[in-house]
Specification:
The complex is a heterodimer of chains A (261) and B (219).
Chain A lengths: L5 E10 L2 E11 L4 E5 L6 H8 L7 E6 L2 E2 L2 E4 L2 E4 L2 H8 L2 E4 L11 H12 L4 H14 L15 H13 L5 E5 L7 H17 L3 E5 L3 H7 L2 E6 L2 E6 L1 H6 L4 H12 L5
Parallel strand pairs in A: 3-10, 3-11, 8-9, 9-10
Antiparallel strand pairs in A: 1-2, 1-4, 4-5, 6-7, 11-12
Helix pairs in contact in A: 3-4, 3-5, 4-5, 5-6
Chain B lengths: L1 H38 L5 H16 L2 H11 L9 H27 L2 H9 L4 H31 L11 H12 L3 H30 L8
Helix pairs in contact in B: 1-2, 1-4, 1-7, 1-8, 2-4, 3-4, 4-6, 5-6, 6-8, 7-8
Classes of the chains: A alpha/beta (261), B mainly alpha (219).
């Protein structure tokens, strides 16, 4: 049996007095495409943010690619990791945000090349060649010289995907990447991600409210409620034949709200 | 008439000194503003404390006294400054304290999502600051920097008190030699005003250049 690329072991996380995650454990296999669904505040986005080191955990352990994310082992003891360790671990992980978070003062090309040039010392010519390939892939090559403010939401998000891919992470995190888009722009972003899922062996975690997309995209679906995994399984099992009452209730509500399944 | 043209020459010399002071003072103020403004945001308590102390002290004491102190007191501890050096030092440190708060505010005005993008792209703290945060914050700072520069220009008049031959000093000279008050002081009033307009205009065109492309219209 291969070892998981992400091993989350009994982590907890509170915001003030609100306990978002309480002893959560889960594993993700290399190359797996995972969809995290569930009501708002159920902790699914928090998991992505913790994996990207944007939030710290209060307890528990996380292993990424066989190494501790937030700890370093010294003399058989696990000690809190320093910034150097986190920097090294972040190389394995990329993230795409709900609101794109592009750099508004840099053109599309510079948005994509900035991190490889700064963090990996990639020469400009090499970084730009790679950026062009990625922009080609997300269908944004003709906008390489545009500024983010000139792009539509869907275009911005496709650039953001290319930007995250430019660092060649092993794990990609997608945090509600279509939630902020006008309905007619959702499809173009989903198409890019479908292609990405089909063509790469990257491990991908997707938080989404688009159930139809989660169904097509994922190998495995996790349904979260109140910081716990209520139910998990193949997309068909979860969406066609959910076993837990809470999953059924959630899906019913989502369908009533007009989302496709 | 020939007599007046000689006096205008004096005033123009004074204008050059005022411009020189303004430029050099602004450079020092800018340096101090970034040093102290970013110091206020440092992770390290000692840097935050030093920056705060500097800002509060120089905002909280009179520029006159600061100048006199730099020129008349520093020699007692073995540091003798020329009037120009003392002027640049006092003006730069004083205005720098105000501008430091501008730097801090502008950096804090940049949204958390930009910092998070930096983390997600694995940029180091300094890399993110240098390439992502500061370029955006600079645009927020510029208009207020323009104000600060004009404040500095006007404050240069205090150096006439330590006998540096700036605009105001030369106007006094002309007044005492001609007995005419209206002409020299009206003249320098307009010169100060024109210099301030030049600063406003320069800052505005810089702002326009830096904002290019950010609004999605001009490229």
């Amino acid at each position: 049996m291969p070892t998981p690329i992400i091993n989350i072991d009994a982590i907890s996380k509170s915001f003030g007095t609100f306990k978002v995650l309480d002893g959560l454990s889960m594993q993700v296999m290399p190359g797996e495409k995972l969809a995290l669904i569930g009501p708002s505040g159920s902790g699914k986005t928090t998991i992505l943010r913790i994996l990207m080191t944007l939030e710290r955990i209060d307890g528990g352990h996380i292993q990424i690619d066989g190494e501790q994310l937030y700890h370093v082992e010294r003399n058989g003891q696990l000690l809190p990791a320093d910034e150097r360790h986190l920097t090294r671990m972040r190389q394995k992980i990329g993230m795409v945000f709900q609101l794109f978070n592009l750099f508004p003062h840099k053109c599309v090309m510079d948005n994509v090349t900035l991190a490889p040039m700064l963090t990996k010392g990639t020469p400009r010519a090499v970084a730009e060649k790679r950026a062009m390939e990625l922009l080609e892939m997300v269908g944004m090559a003709d906008k390489a010289k545009s500024m983010p403010a000139q792009l539509s939401g869907g275009q911005k998000q496709r650039v953001a995907i290319a930007r995250a891919l430019a660092l060649s992470p092993k794990i990609m995190l997608f945090d509600e990447v279509t939630s902020a888009l006008d309905p007619e722009l959702v499809e173009e972003v989903m198409n890019v991600m479908r292609k990405l899922a089909a063509e790469t062996d990257m491990t991908m975690l997707l938080v989404t409210h688009e159930m139809g997309f989660a169904h097509d995209f994922a190998d495995r679906v996790l349904f979260f409620d109140r910081g716990k995994i209520v139910e998990e399984g193949k997309p068909d099992e979860i969406f066609r034949n959910p076993k837990q009452e809470r999953t059924q209730g959630f899906l019913k509500k989502i369908i009533a709200a007009g989302h496709r399944v | 008439m020939t007599q007046w043209s000689g006096y205008f020459g004096l005033i123009l010399q004074g204008a050059l000194v005022t411009i020189e002071l303004t430029l050099m003072g602004s450079v020092l103020a800018l340096f101090m503003a970034f040093l102290a403004g970013m110091g206020r945001l440092s992770r390290f308590f000692i840097l935050r404390a030093l920056a705060t102390a500097y800002i509060e002290f120089f905002r909280g004491t009179s520029i006159f006294v600061q100048l006199f102190w730099a020129y008349f007191v520093l020699p007692f501890i073995g540091i003798s400054l020329t009037p120009l050096q003392a002027g640049v030092l006092a003006l730069g440190l004083n205005v720098g304290a105000y501008a430091a708060e501008v730097v801090r505010g502008a950096i804090q005005s940049i949204g958390r999502e930009q910092y998070e993008a930096c983390t997600a792209l694995n940029l180091g703290r300094w890399q993110g600051m240098r390439h992502v945060i500061l370029p955006q914050a600079l645009l927020v700072m510029l208009p207020t920097f323009g104000n600060n520069a004009i404040e500095l220009l006007k404050a240069t008049a205090v150096v006439s008190l330590i006998s540096l031959a700036d605009l105001t000093f030369q106007a006094q000279v002309v007044r005492s030699q001609t007995g005419n008050t209206m002409v020299p002081f009206t003249t320098i009033l307009f010169i100060y005003f024109i210099l301030a307009l030049l600063i406003s205009w320069g800052v505005r065109s810089l702002e326009r250049r830096m904002a290019r492309g950010l609004d999605g219209v001009r490229v």
